[in-house]
Amino acid sequence: MVPFAGTGAGVGELTWAQQGLWRAMVTTASSLPLGGVSPLPPGFTVAAAGRVLAFATARHPSLRTRLLPGPEPMPRQEIAAAGEAVLTVLEAGTEDPGVVADRLRARWEDTPFDYTVEWPVRMGVVTVGGEPRRLVAVYCHLALDMHGLDVLIADLATMDPDTGRSPAPVAGTTALELARRQRQPAGVRQSAASLRHWDHMLRLIPARRLPGSARRRVPRWQELGLTSVAALHAVRILAARSGLRTRPLLLAACAVGLCRVAGTDPAVLQVLVSNRFRPGLADLVTPLAQSSLLVVPLSGAPLVEVAARAQQETVRAAKNAYYDPLQLDQVYERVDRDRAEDVDVDVFYNDRRRVAAHDDGGPVPTEADLRKSLGSAAPRLDRELERFDHRMFVHVNDVPDAVDWTVCADSHHLGREDARALLLAMEGALVEAALHG
């Protein structure tokens, strides 16, 4: 056991972003965990791993937060002033320590956290003959998001390995303080402004998003992927030619692909917005991302023009991604009632790449490079799921040397063949634009 102590103790409501995550976690029966496995340098000790765990939990209140059962619809959270965290030590023996670490990570990711009892971080050391070789860390999504994990990793780099201390100041706002701010007049006004935008857009867009499916599969949700070198060459050629970044170009490819498969125009997606551009939020180790509605008309325009529109609409979406999700439910209900139909916006898009690394990736490929890479990728079935929280979710994943998409789709609304067609349509939209303008 590793003792810890820190500031910011208290009890309060979940933040808006945490409320959205809690719903997803309940629906999917998953903690939606983040984390991974890291190799350890020679001389690293189990005691040093304990200092890392104590440092992280002491400095970041989200890592010493548990839930309190409460009245529906949302639990409350409690930040502890002190406690003890578990550091697991696992001897690999004759096994490959990397294999043992991956197995531990997978088991932890597949096992939901006990939210009222367990701290939201699981950390372990895999040893060989008592010598640490791998560090495994898995975090509950209620404690942090991907950007928060980046902040945590950067903070860990400031720790003195001998003393377990850091000269760097800690971000002062806790999730409890943020939740209180969101319920004060300025937060209420921001939420109301965002919800007015949602209400306006929901009244304008066509109600249907997806084509439907005659074959309802079991398991119901199908996750397909495509890893395309050709798409990477194409998007980098287009970025160099147009002056746009790769993010709006990939978003435009998704918009074009979705409209081709579903036979709709405009493209309507919910995009995830980090919200870390808002004052005082950049360095918080807590989830902040919320979705916002993005509407991109195609009207037969070239992909680069669609990307420019997408970039403009992304700015508007970002301004309106900070709101009370329980009040958004009321907006949905009111609009559906007024329109006398269900307006489907359960289609999500998330670009999870560290964009700077992809946009500054060395020499721009040539059209010859692109043509040489054509036909090298094919859609794959990654997994089948009994439970998921959306009708469709497109991810752009952070992998080197390719564009990697996953599409998780409800087979009642988007069949497996249509999901395959969407992946190929996104790749095709980029390649066509790069080769033919």
TrEMBL record:
Gene Ontology biological process terms in this record: lipid biosynthetic process
One of the Pfam families matching this protein, by short name: Condensation
InterPro entries hit by this protein: CAT-like_dom_sf (IPR023213), Condensation_dom (IPR001242)
GO molecular function, one term: catalytic activity
Domain Condensation, first and last residues per copy: 14-349
Protein name: Condensation domain-containing protein
Lineage of the organism: Bacteria, Bacillati, Actinomycetota, Actinomycetes, Mycobacteriales
